[in-house]
Amino acid sequence: MFFSIASINGIPTIEMINLVRNIKHFFNYVSFESINGQVLIGTVTNESIKNTQLNKIDCMDELLYFYSKENRNNDICLFVDEEEQIWSSILDIEQIEKLQLEGNFYKLTSDKKEFITHNNVTIQLTQPDNKKSCFTNLDFEFLRCQLKAYKDESARKSTCMLLNDAWHNPKDRKEFKSRPEHYMRDSLTQFLKNVFTRRAVVHPEQNVDDSHPVDIKVTFKNTNRTAILEVKWLGDSISNSGKKIKYRDARAKEGAKQLNDYLDKISSHEPQNETRGYLIVFDARRKDEDLFFYQNKEIEYDPKYDEIRPDFDEPLRFFIEPILTTSS
């Protein structure tokens, strides 16, 4: 929790603790980033809740069946009564508020502002520095920020020693060694392990099923959230015997389709978990006459899975700069 209970004037401490517990419990199952509608969470009296049309649910897993990732444009309410019974429904928040339930309430608006209501008095919460919520971490957003940091700090100039070992000639960074994928995966895995020392567990090469391993899996602690990272590379590789292999845009598009299929499998096998997929493309495409030609050449994906499904993050491309050499 990122604010002081004492700062919520007028609400008895025990009531505030119960409300905060229910808010945090909700966000353990539903990521803040995935919500596009409004959320209303409350601790209510038995008398005020019993004549409503809300549904009783036995556990939070049950909530996820009707408030799945695909339904997060809708409004959702979650109430806990005096007997710890959970009530919930997907209804317009304005319709719920007309019921005039008795209790304490938390509201998250569609523009991500947070409010607390007690005795019909509503106050807006001020999020602490670098936090978008007073009650939960934004795990997926934080991961994306760290991936961008890796792009700038480690990938761009190949400063990570593990990644630097991927080059056929590290002095010019024009071609990779043969089959360089594991260097990239190991480099990114090590970076993420250093970042997520307490917040998540990072594993390389985790199987989606019996025959399909995903390159990196990040499991966030104390939540139902998992990220899977699919790593692809573009450019040329050259073996010790001189054999060359070229990978261009089609390789990245293949990775997008592959990640989409992984997410489909995970969604069907683990509907109670919230998984987000990240496509990471190490880009070392070169043109002899202009080694930086591809620096700002983005890949055109069709279909754009990140616009179709909410669990597919926008692909990230890490352009790795060559070293310009001059002949004497």
How is this fold's topology laid out?
Layout: H1 13-29, E1 39-44, H2 46-49, E2 55-57, H3 60-66, E3 76-80, E4 86-89, H4 93-97, E5 103-108, E6 114-118, E7 121-124, H5 139-155, H6 161-164, E8 176-177, H7 181-195, E9 200-207, E10 213-220, E11 225-238, E12 244-247, H8 249-269, E13 274-283, H9 305-308, E14 316-319
Parallel strand pairs: 1-3, 8-11, 11-13, 13-14
Antiparallel strand pairs: 1-5, 2-4, 3-4, 5-6, 6-7, 9-10, 10-11, 11-12
Describe this structure in words.
- The protein is α/β, with parallel strands linked by helices and 328 residues long.
- The chain has 2 domains: 5-124, YojJ-like (1; 139-319, Trna Endonuclease, Chain: A, domain 1 (3-Layer(aba) Sandwich), CATH 3.40.1350.
- It has a 7-stranded mixed beta sheet. Strands 8, 9, 10, 11, 12, 13 and 14 form a 7-stranded mixed beta sheet that branches.
- The protein has helices at residues 13-29, 46-49, 60-66, 93-97, 139-155, 161-164, 181-195, 249-269, 305-308; strands at 39-44, 55-57, 76-80, 86-89, 103-108, 114-118, 121-124, 176-177, 200-207, 213-220, 225-238, 244-247, 274-283, 316-319.
- Mean pLDDT is 89; it is low at 1-7.
- The radius of gyration is 24 Å and the shape is elongated.
Tags for this model:
328 residues, YojJ-like (1, Trna Endonuclease, Chain: A, domain 1, 2 domains, 7-stranded mixed beta sheet, 9 helices, elongated, disordered N terminus
**Total strands:** 14
Largest sheet, described in full? Answer: 7 strands, mixed
End-to-end separation:
62 Å
Content-based structural category: alpha/beta
Mean pLDDT: 89
As residue ranges, the low-confidence spans are: 1-7
Instruction: Give the tally of structural domains.
Output: 2
Order of helices and strands: HEHEHEEHEEEHHEHEEEEHEHE
- What do we call the CATH topology of the largest domain? Trna Endonuclease, Chain: A, domain 1
Cα shape: elongated
**What strand order characterises the main sheet?**
2-4-3-1-5-6-7
Determine the fraction of residues in helical runs and give it as a percent range: 25-40%
Number of helices: 9
